[in-house]
Specification:
- The structure is a single chain.
- By secondary structure, the protein is α/β, with parallel strands linked by helices.
- The protein contains 13 helices and 12 strands.
- The protein folds into 2 domains: 105 residues, 3-Layer(aba) Sandwich (Rossmann fold); 209 residues, 3-Layer(aba) Sandwich (Rossmann fold), CATH 3.40.50.
- α2 packs parallel to α3 and α5 crosses α13.
- The longest helix has 17 residues.
- The radius of gyration is 21 Å and the shape is globular.
- About 2% of the residues have low confidence.
Amino acid sequence: MRIGIITWLESAEFEDVVLQALLTKGISRVELEYRALSIDSLVKFLENKAPTDSRFILIHDSDEITSDLEREMRRFPGAIRMAIEPVIGDVTVEIERVVNRALREFETTPVPRKLVVRQKNLVVVTGSTGAPGTTTITLNLGNELARSKVVELIDLHPTRRDLAFLLGAKRSSESVRLSETLSISGKLSEASSAIQLVDAGPIPNLESAFSDRRAAARGYVDLLERAETIIFLMTPDNNHMFELESILASLDAGRIKARAIFVLNQMGNTRRERSIQKRFSARVGKYESELLPIDRDSLDRAKSAYSALIDVAPRSKLRKSIGEVAGLLLE
């Protein structure tokens, strides 16, 4: 099965670079389907394209996606939409990786899975590799939510169990009650009426996780499938854009049906970070997203006091930004 490429790029020169990277560098099963000159011509092409299970990637450089284009894209469950900056360089490597990832995912035969029931009030915090801050954000988000709701922090991080430790309890603690509305546990409860906020740690290779029979991968995928909401964290790093693409592909394909909130954490103000922020915003598109500023001073004070930011730095920009994420969950 071949995979199609549709481009909608303003710069013809950049479009030539993109197509050369895809069609001449060993991705032998890719073929060019259409080069759109305008949004109207792209929508018309998709209107006339027969809906099939075949996969194609729409590569575009515009932040504005019209409702007509969104409607047509939904007709194709195997379609992937990829926004990309019109620059020359490492971006071509990123395109090659995305296309090869799509080919591998298409060729993978999923293992039949049992039906997983979505669980009300289950929020899973996950993120890219390389310490994007899942534990820190889970801890502080739980404290924000506990101001008005009963919250259970569930520590399911695969390599580090730090939630209890960062709030002054023993690292080995299985159950800690912090207040009348906030507690920490190492297990999920299907019968709980509280908001269960799970630190799930970094994202595994989703391309293989859905067909992986091993307990770790199976447990992670079950979490994503059971969740009412997924919060995906990443930092402004080019490598994390690849992992962002992985979870977006699963959401776009309907493998994950939870509400998704994407968070760009530790955001600074360098030119590189602003560039990644623009790519992040363009790629998450229709999904909800938030930016969290870098604030090591406030985080160090909270860590040394075994507290959340709300207790030691209530007026900090980071604490206010985490409060905005909590507000999204309470909507």
